[in-house]
Amino acid sequence: MTDSDRSTPSSNVTEEPATTSAKPKAATSAPAPKPPKPKRSALWLGGLVLIVLVGLLGAGLWVQHQDVVALRDGLAGQRADASRLMDQTDARAQQALSLAQRQSEQITQLQAKLDATQEQLQDLDAALQLMSDSGSDLLLLNDIDHLVTIAQQQLKLSGNVANAIISLEVAQSQLARANRPTMASLQQTINGDVDRLRAVAVIDLPGLSQQLDHLASLVGEAPLLVPDAAAPTIRSSRTVATVVAQEDASLPADAPWWQQATHQAWQWSRVAGTALIHDVRGLFDIRRVDDATALLISPDQALRFREGLRQRTLTAQLALMMHQPKIWRSELEAVAQAVDRRFDMKDASAREAASLARRLQDTPIETQLPTVDNSIEAIAALREAAASEERANGASVYKPDENAPSDVPADAPSGEHAPNPNVL
Fold first, then answer.
1. Is residue 253 part of a domain?
2. The model's pTM
3. Which domain holds residue 304?
4. What is the dihedral of CA 308, 311, 312, 314, to 10 degrees?
5. In total, how many domains does the chain have?
6. Same domain? 235 vs 341
């Protein structure tokens, strides 16, 4: 301790008697005031603070209680939502499970069908392999036979050489792709038939049809001995006079008036004379006709006559397409004779129609087409050889075993154990 610390109690001790000595004096002079009560105010202050703290604590607890209640309600709602979602999820899972079960059953059924189909496919593959090994030649021979038969039908029914050649060429290509040594002779035979068909002179059907159409137009336009509605009309006298006036109008424009008047008078008189001569010639017509009935035909009969000739040309065209030479020649001969008797041979179109009908009549429409009988015979020979080989192979494969035990006893009478054909 320091000196000051030590001196402080001594000073307090020395001053205390003075205080005690002063108290009686003050009591005698005036009444002393009441000292404050510090303990009671402190209690009130502490109580107030305590009340405030309690209120704050209560308010905090109330707010916390509300938060807890709200949190509990939110958790309850979330729990309800979660429960509902779990129920929906469970329902969907059940549906998915049932669907998966159905699909599994379907897959099982499909797998069974696939296995059965694979077994059938294997059986078919084995059968096809067996057929390819033993009967491919027969199948190829059937295809070639079908193509050759088509070519024969095209030649005999319609005379279409092009289609027959196409069928034989397809047969050639199939034989070339197969490359079978046993069918080399058949391929050579088909090649020979194709060469013969290519050497055939083909009839020009489009050209002949076009000539027939031209003949039909000529018989419809050429003039008859007696003019009709379809014949060219005779020019009038006015037209003839106009042509003559145009041919003679060669006077220069600067000629004197008297020369122009003379030339005009001469031209008028010439036009009038030409028209008169033309009209007089129209009244009289001298012709040499072998058939007198040709001059008595009426306009309606002339129209029907022309239609009949056009019908004959159509019949000739049909005979051309069907390769019927007799009908072809008869129809064109009838058209040529009708043109010679009934038409005016002074006209160029009538002469052209007659010459065209004669030329078409002399045109042959039938040609001797070769056949494919050689190929058909070669196919038949190969088929017979294949059948003989198959019979030989079958006989060699099936040989009864003499040492095999028999169900019929040796001492049995004949016919005792023979099967009854009436019993199944």
1. no
2. 0.41
3. 203-247+296-366
4. 170
5. 2
6. yes
Same domain, 175 and 161: yes
pLDDT in tens, 367-413: 777 888 888 888 888 888 877 776 776 544 334 444 444 444 444 44
| Residue 286 confidence (pLDDT) | 57
Query: What is the pLDDT at residue 352?
Result: 92
